[in-house]
Write a structure and sequence with these properties.
Blueprint: E1 2-6, H1 13-26, E2 30-33, H2 44-52, E3 57-58, H3 62-71, H4 79-95, H5 99-103, E4 108-112, E5 118-122, H6 139-146, E6 153-156, E7 163-167, E8 170-174, E9 188-196, E10 199-207, H7 211-220, H8 223-227, H9 231-240, H10 245-257, H11 263-271, H12 275-286
Parallel strand pairs: 1-2, 2-3, 5-6, 6-8
Antiparallel strand pairs: 1-9, 4-5, 7-8, 9-10
Helix pairs in contact: 3-4, 10-12
Length: 288
Amino acid sequence: MQIAVLADIHGNLPALEAVAADIERLNPDLVFVAGDFQNRGPNPREVTKFVAESGWTLLRGNHEDYVIRQSQNSRTQDSTDYYNWLPARWTANLTRDFVDLIERLPIATTLTGPDKLLITIAHGSKRSNDEGFFPSTPEAKAKEMIGDDPPSLLCVGHSHFPLVRRINATLLVNVGSVGFPFDGDRRACYGLITWNCNRWEVEIRRIEYAVDKVVEEFERVRFYQGAGPLSYLIRRELESARPHLTPFQYLFGPQLRAGKLSILDAVEAYMEMPQKDIEEQFMRLFRK
């Protein structure tokens, strides 16, 4: 038995097409898309249509929930929060006809594999699509997230950091991100898991694709105008393969909420910061 698990495509069509070609060549028995195929990237409609017609098993990630919320014309009074929601609102405007389909998707699915062993595929965890397994997740927290009746194999996404780790009887595989890896490697990332000689073998596959083509798409589809100032941080995430939306909120969120800095000035200041300074300051604040 061989399973391919994709997660966190985030509207990046060139990355998805490259991974799909690799999957077609390998021809695994089952393919799962473990959520967050929408939002962040410039081609959410094309990606949503692609996965909806693929025949693969789809799950709903937290970013699909964000887009659903914005498709229902959700509004907020907080100006900072308004800018945070603009990318999802832009995506919602392009994918409204898929909302009914996406709302019906589960956040996790469990099947019986070889030797009657349970296999669970989830976006974040079986209990929530808004929590994730990171390389730094303590074992006690990981056990809590896995929950009762732990599966033999648990494949997830959400964090954008690939990970293979054994937690008691469960082999935990974070398959990383197809569209926006955060581990410093810009290549698309997904997981190929094979049952061989009575055990699971895991391969985290990295696939080259034209990142520059995605940057061109940002311009072509007028992403910066539609998704607002945070779209520049999203482009930096793509180009650096590092997270930027979360560090930005830690570093500049308090000043924005206090009205001491405009969103445009905050984004400009952040974009001028070297990666090393961002990581050092973010970790210092994160640990407080």
